[in-house]
Design brief:
Chain lengths: 471, 567, 464
């Protein structure tokens, strides 16, 4: 009786609540008249995102049996991704309070719908649902880019390349469904395929996810899209959207096509190294800070992919760690760039001098260090684990290549730091206001906390293995 | 015991931070300096304690994760206490010195300097390789920060050079510890082990070579000296800390710590010997013909560290310890003295513009002369004993007569050249014709006590620390558990050799000073190749988008709309 | 009561004409279609259960339902217009219902002609009215001249090909009767499947060719899209073709089911699919875009007809439904908004958020973007193609890519804020109800229809 009642209305489903809160918020905002009550729109969306974040933290204590509904269920990695998503959307909404003044309602409604979709996609256990949600996310991001981007070509590039990638993904899904008539990921991971079938599945899925993760040569959409949008949208794109690809690889591709992953991992590692090298080189010649951030993000995602496909537990752990640290670091750095832009007026790297903003330098430095994955506290662990995994799996040249490229990007990062922060300022002092600090300080604290205590993200007690065994 | 040093360093850092928060309270900088001196005294006391009763302690702090067998802990044995002691003393001196030397951004400078010191102490006290790696890489960052804070305020273009070099060096260390982890399954320092088979030997060789590469980068040896030569604009106390802390603790300290790894194959040790000899000789020669003050200092450091590496190659760890200690203090003393000169001349570093400052800067002159005398190896002073022991070890090593002879010969030549360039430097700065303009003369005066006083403390340590350690290691024969190789007897002809060597050196110096006057040229660094590449690459990247994608887009989507005006 | 729906329609036609003549009252054919639709549902007891296409009777019921639904849409669009046109639509639907119940080729031929002639008449009457300052003047007296005027170039080929198709079809029937001496479906299926002699192959070829020509599709379709110029989208030949597709389906299932890979259908389908979607991306006229998109989907449906597969035929039916709904939605929206080209769409969302959203959703559904109805039709079609040959479904991706490019263009026009002058559109509330209805149909009908049709036994949420 209780089970039947639970099936009809899953009261315990915090997951359902966390997906529906942003939607409810969007509906409420759509009823507000934008011209009269501008402040209410901003406040409503802010409170909605805060509430969603708090709810998503409750998922950390979730168990699979209790909190699943329909095809959605929490797992170790998805809970962390959901928490990161809600946090970053919260930060993006905070950043947009001052930045976006036109088309407010559309922005907030679309962002909240996007948040709901992102939470759903990170918790789904069904391939078809994943694909449908992915396409919806691409669509809504495309509309956001269209409305708020400076040039329509970046949005069109984004849409076309991602559509091509996701059509390849669709082909893989259709192939899989045709073979097995099953769409549940957990069930499919126990299925055995012939090598030929598995390689078809592998390549279609991989190319689909590679376009989302912006691996070479499907990376074309990333630099322009990261540059020509307001900071809030760039945070969402670089912080969350790119991670859908690696998340898909980790939860869908690797469990289903295990043997193919092991067979083809040499190619994938080479591709990842190539992407990293290209990204570092391309970032070196850019003049706009946001362009540099986009290219380096591309390199980071390639590093995470390399970690995932190294075939080692250490590599996967390093990839998860780097995912979270990259999101936080990229967000912090983007906010730093926004602060600089507000004061200087442009984002040119050769601007040289910035005004003396008290306490800004350490914050910006931490952000920059995290972002450039400098091999010490903030991202050290992730990079170390990935390099260790590559070495132990007998890919020494790739390990050395990746290390070399990381070293190049570190020196580049410091060059930028020196250009921005050293020197005499011509402008007068403009200290950071409360809003900017309120966004940055928690982010920096979180980065430092995770770097010192990485157990939050890394799978220390073997929980993922336990989950696998249970299923 | 090291944990107390770390604790006191933390207190110093807190004091620095409080000074930074409120820069108007000038008295706080004195508090910082006083606390630093207190730390140095504590470190000295702990050293004495350790020398009296050598023991080894381990303090556990926390563990990383369960996937990586690494812990954060403090290992307190003789080697780490010696290294920590050196750093604390030099930092204390540098703190006092900076109060007088650095006029702008003092708070941040003190913070960076003390953070660097703390990091170096933690590096010295690391309990495993992973921890050492973390602090090794943080050293890069802190060195960078220290170098960017220029008292004169203009941007320091060369500070990123240090990062570039260290980044690649750190890569070598990362690969090395990953490979070591693959062999042994943990990150410990490698106690005595037996090499089971050829594969393991080859892997260990690779590890040793990788660590050696990173050490070469970090200590600015052959092949990666550019970053050290590019720091002329940085302030002097910063340079002192870099030369002693970064170069030595990051460069040479791991050599001693990981001695078991380096002992495993002859290839590695031969590489060390040859590399060290090369840099030692080459840079000693370059120093003789140098034009700028900081150039001489840099080349001299490189040469001395080269000698240290040679000592490591011959497994002469006793010699290494003595030389390590004496070089740290001597170089700091020298830098402080020269810094005082530079400060008096308002930033002038070219030797061609200096001369005849003997009467104008008497106190500085005395400290410089004392340091130089110590460095050239006058008996009863530090370097004499270090060279003596080194030559003895090299001569009695079983590497083959050829290598021994070459090494001995080159060390002697380097000694000659050392005295040559040092005396040349003294002569060109303090003696000879005065080349200053009238306006500079008007501004010139002896510096205040904050700059003079620390110099003398440094000189004191420079002269006597080596002596002290010689007696501790070779006469009282303590720490025989740490260094398992015998030291051998010392011959009586050494004194005669050294006196001869130094006299020859002085003669060479005199000849060169008279014959070759320094020219007024500046070093120009060319990056033509990189600029061309950058230009071509950005051209490709930009035009790819403009030419191809935009055209396709317009073909498809442009037909329906007349203009594409955005917002 | 087998033929009650057809009888009802006939009754309606006569009664309505009588009413109009005697009392001058006009009954909209929309209502009769709704009534017949419900009667259809009562035909079978198990109609409320899972429609599974396993029995021919069920399949025919569903086909009839689809046709009536299409008829509903068309007559709704014609609301308030010419009574003659509404009668023509009713006659056409009657003919197609007859065609579905046909059991031999002759009856199929007659039913086909009953279906197509009223639509030809509608097309003809539209072409022959000339717009002048005084209003629309019928030019029936200059019919021959009209055929060769420069204004409507598509008229001549349209009728020529219709006549050629009819003629070829008649020829095929005669040939068939002479060689096999029967026109019954089951006998012909038997003789074709056992491959007696070469002539049967020729008959198949001619039959299919004629039907294809009659539907005036690829490779001669390029001029066809001009037929939509200046007319309401719903009374262009496209409803005709969609109706004829059903007849195609019937033919293939009953007669040609055991032939593996009907080559002509494969060729036509492939060419239609790829060529129309390629030409899609260079279009600016919205009607052209819609027509070419639908043509490419019809090409896919041809491909599905070409090989014997249960899944394929079911997917085809589903796709028909999706196309009818999308077609209807677009024509309603465009007609109300007077939008013809992409240049009429710039930044509609600024003032007309609901219109912008509705247009976006309708186009997304048409182009096959998830999770709308059009996507599921493409999905099932692709699944069916994958079941036959993997290469076929890979080729099916090509029009999908072009569709994505096109939708990017359209959404770009709608959502990117440009500095042009905003078009003067009527405010949103005028058509709000219709817009809500259509959009809801496109979104909400998805899980229901998935449940109902379920061509594939997939253990996913939608079919649980």
């Amino acid at each position: 009786m209780q089970a039947a009642a639970d099936q009809i209305m899953p009261v315990d489903s915090i997951l359902l609540l966390s997906i529906s809160i942003p939607l409810i918020g969007a509906i409420c905002i759509s009823r507000i008249d934008e011209r009269e009550f501008t402040a209410n729109v901003k406040l409503a969306s802010l409170w909605t995102t805060v509430f969603a974040f708090i709810i998503s933290l409750m998922l950390f204590e979730a168990s699979v049996e209790r909190f699943s509904f329909l095809t959605f269920g929490p797992s170790f990695i998805s809970v962390r991704m959901i928490a990161m998503t809600t946090f970053l959307v919260l930060v993006a909404v905070m950043v947009s309070q001052d930045e976006i003044n036109m088309e407010l309602k559309k922005f907030h409604i679309l962002v909240l719908i996007l948040e709901a979709l992102l939470i759903a996609i990170f918790s789904t256990t069904d391939i078809l649902v994943f694909y449908v949600l992915l396409q919806l996310i691409i669509l809504i991001t495309f509309i956001l880019l269209e409305i708020f981007g400076k040039d329509s070509i970046c949005a069109v590039k984004f849409f076309i390349i991602l559509s091509i990638g996701s059509l390849l993904l669709l082909l893989g899904v259709i192939f899989l469904v045709n073979l097995t008539e099953i769409t549940d990921i957990n069930v499919l991971s126990r299925y055995t395929f012939s090598p030929r079938q598995e390689s078809v599945i592998f390549w279609t899925f991989f190319l689909g996810f590679a376009s989302i993760t912006a691996l070479f040569p499907l990376h074309i959409w990333l630099p322009d899209t990261g540059t020509e949008t307001p900071t809030a949208l760039t945070i969402l794109l670089l912080g969350i959207f790119l991670k859908i690809g690696t998340f898909g690889m980790q939860t869908i591709l690797l469990p289903i096509a295990e043997n193919s992953c092991v067979h083809f991992r040499g190619y994938i590692l080479e591709l990842a190294t190539l992407t990293m090298g290209y990204a570092t080189l391309a970032a070196r010649v850019q003049r706009d800070l946001k362009h540099i951030v986009s290219y380096i993000s591309m390199g980071q995602m390639a590093l995470i992919t390399a970690g995932l496909f190294s075939g080692n537990v250490h590599g996967a752990a390093g990839a998860s760690f780097n995912t979270i640290m990259h999101s936080l670091g990229a967000t912090a750095l983007l906010m730093v760039i926004a602060i600089i832009e507000n004061r200087v007026g442009n984002r040119n790297v050769d601007a040289g001098m910035i005004p003396l903003i008290p306490y800004f330098s350490p914050i910006a430095t931490v952000a920059m260090l995290t972002f450039f994955s400098v091999p010490w506290a903030p991202s050290f662990l992730g990079n170390f684990l990935i390099l260790s995994a590559c070495w132990n799996e007998r890919f020494p040249i790739i390990c050395l290549g990746i290390g070399f490229i990381i070293a190049c990007s570190i020196s580049h990062g410091f060059k930028i730091h020196r250009q921005i922060f050293s020197g005499i300022s011509r402008l007068k002092k403009m200290p950071m206001n409360r809003k900017e600090l309120a966004g940055l300080i928690p982010l920096i604290m979180l980065i430092l906390a995770i770097s010192v205590y990485p157990r939050v993200i890394l799978d220390c007690r073997g929980e993922q293995a336990k989950e696998k065994r249970r299923l | 015991m090291v944990k107390y040093i770390v604790l006191f360093q933390l207190i110093v850092l807190l004091a620095c931070q409080s000074y930074q928060w409120n820069s108007e309270r000038e008295n706080r900088k004195y508090l910082v300096a006083a606390l630093a001196m207190l730390t140095a005294s504590l470190a000295t006391w702990i050293l004495g304690d350790q020398l009296a009763t050598p023991r080894s302690e381990y303090t556990f702090l926390w563990s990383f994760t369960e996937q990586i067998p690494g812990e954060f802990g403090l290992l307190s044995d003789s080697l780490s206490i010696v290294a920590a002691w050196i750093v604390c003393v030099i930092t204390a001196i540098a703190n006092c010195y900076s109060i007088g030397y650095v006029k702008k951004n003092l708070a941040v400078f003190l913070l960076a300097m003390n953070a660097l010191a703390m990091n170096t102490v933690l590096l010295a006290a690391s309990a495993n390789l992973l921890q050492m790696h973390i602090f090794w890489t943080v050293l890069t960052l802190l060195s960078y920060f220290l170098l960017t804070f220029n008292p004169r305020g203009s941007p320091v273009k060369s500070s990123t050079g240090i990062v570039s070099a260290h980044a690649f060096g750190d890569l070598g260390f990362t690969i090395a510890i990953i490979a070591l982890f693959q062999i042994f399954g943990n990150f410990n320092f490698g106690e005595k082990f037996f090499i089971g088979n050829d594969l393991q030997l080859r892997r260990l060789e690779f590890v040793a070579l990788a660590i050696l590469t990173s050490i070469f980068f970090k200590s600015a040896q052959l092949g990666s000296t550019r970053w050290l030569c590019q720091t002329p604009e940085a302030s002097m106390p910063a340079q002192s800390l870099i030369h002693s802390a970064t170069l030595l603790t990051a460069g040479i300290f791991p050599l001693i710590r990981l001695q078991n790894v380096f002992e495993c194959s002859e290839l590695v040790q031969n590489t060390m010997i040859l590399g060290g000899l090369g840099s030692m000789t080459l840079y000693s020669i370059k120093a003789v013909f140098a034009e700028e003050l900081s150039e001489i200092l840099a080349y001299s450091s490189i040469a001395q560290v080269g000698a240290l590496v040679v000592a490591g190659g011959f497994s002469a760890y006793g010699a290494m310890i003595i030389m390590y200690v004496s070089h740290a203090f001597s170089k700091s003393a020298l830098i402080f003295s020269m810094g005082s000169v530079v400060y008096s001349l308002s930033g002038e570093q070219k030797l061609s513009n200096m001369g005849g400052l003997f009467e104008l800067l008497p106190k500085t002159y005395i400290s410089s002369i004392l340091t130089v005398i110590s460095m050239v190896g006058v008996p009863l002073m530090s370097f004499y004993y270090s060279r003596k022991v080194l030559l003895n070890e090299i001569a009695s090593a079983n590497r083959g007569l050829a290598l021994n002879c070459i090494a001995v010969g080159l060390v002697v030549v380097a000694a000659i050249l050392t005295s040559a360039y040092l005396f040349r430097m003294i002569y060109l700065i303090f003696h000879g014709k005065r080349k200053l303009t009238e306006t500079s003369l008007a501004y010139l005066n002896e510096n205040d006590n904050f700059i003079i006083f620390p110099q003398y403390i440094a000189v004191f340590f420079a002269i006597f620390s080596g002596v002290f350690f010689y007696y501790a290691l070779y006469v009282d024969l303590i720490w025989t558990d740490v260094f398992a190789f015998s030291y051998g007897a010392v011959g009586g002809y050494a004194i005669f050799t050294f006196v001869t060597v130094n006299l020859i050196g002085i003669a060479v110096a005199a000849l060169i000073c008279k014959a070759i006057t320094p020219r007024n040229i500046s070093i120009q660094l060319n990056y033509k190749g990189i600029d061309k590449f950058k230009k071509h690459f950005i051209h490709i990247v930009q035009n790819l988008d403009r030419k191809y994608f935009r055209k396709v887009y317009l073909l498809i989507a442009g037909s329906g709309r007349s203009n594409h005006a955005g917002r | 009561m087998i033929y009650q729906s057809e009888l009802l329609l006939v009754v309606y036609i006569f009664l309505s004409r009588l009413l109009k003549k005697k009392y001058g009252r006009q009954v909209n054919s929309f209502w009769i279609f709704i009534v017949v639709f419900f009667f259809l549902g009562l035909e079978d007891d198990s109609s409320r259960a899972n429609f599974s296409f396993h029995s021919p009777k069920h399949a025919e019921s569903i086909l009839k339902a689809l046709l009536l639904f299409g008829g509903c849409m068309v007559s709704y669009a014609l609301k308030g217009q010419d009574f003659e046109k509404q009668t023509a639509v009713a006659v056409s639907v009657f003919g197609s219902l007859m065609a579905i119940s046909a059991r031999n080729f002759l009856s199929l031929f007659i039913a086909l002609e009953i279906t197509t002639i009223p639509l030809h008449w509608m097309f003809w009457s539209d072409c022959s009215r000339k717009q002048t300052a005084q209003g629309t003047i019928p030019l029936l007296q200059n019919t021959l001249k009209l055929v060769f005027t420069a204004e409507d170039r598509s008229v001549a080929p349209y009728f020529i090909f219709a006549m050629v198709g009819t003629g070829a079809y008649a020829l095929a029937i005669i040939w068939m009767y002479l060689s096999i001496e029967s026109l019954d479906f089951s006998e012909i299926r038997y003789s074709i499947s056992f491959g007696h002699g070469r002539s049967h192959w020729w008959i198949t070829f001619l039959m299919l060719n004629s039907l294809t020509i009659k539907q005036v599709v690829c490779p001669i379709y390029l001029w066809l899209s001009d037929t939509a110029h200046g007319k309401n989208l719903l009374i262009t030949p496209y409803p005709l073709q969609m109706a004829s597709q059903i007849i195609f389906y019937k033919l293939v299932t009953n007669v040609f089911y055991y032939l593996d890979g009907i080559n002509i259908l494969l060729t036509f389908g492939f060419l239609l699919m790829v060529c129309s979607s390629f030409s899609l991306i260079f279009q600016n006229n919205i009607k052209q875009i819609v027509i070419r998109c639908i043509l490419s989907q019809m090409g896919t449906m041809f491909l599905c007809c070409a090989f014997p597969s249960h899944n394929g035929l079911q997917a085809m039916m589903f796709s028909m439904l999706a196309m009818i709904i999308s077609f209807f939605g677009i024509s309603i929206v465009l007609k109300s908004r007077n939008i013809n080209t992409l240049a009429d769409l710039p930044a509609i969302h600024r003032g007309h958020m609901l219109s912008a959203a509705a247009i976006s959703i309708i186009f997304l559904s048409l182009m096959g973007y998830p999770p709308f109805l059009g996507f599921w039709s493409q999905f099932y079609l692709c699944l069916a193609l994958m079941g036959w040959r993997t290469a076929a479904s890979v080729i099916h991706l090509v029009p999908c890519v072009f569709n994505m490019v096109c939708i990017a263009k359209i959404l770009d026009a709608i959502w990117f804020p440009r500095t042009q002058v905003m078009p003067r559109l009527p405010p949103d509330h005028v058509l709000r109800k219709t817009i809500y209805l259509i959009t809801l149909m496109l979104i909400a009908i998805v899980p229901l229809v998935n449940r109902v049709f379920s061509p594939v036994r997939v253990e996913s949420y939608f079919v649980r």
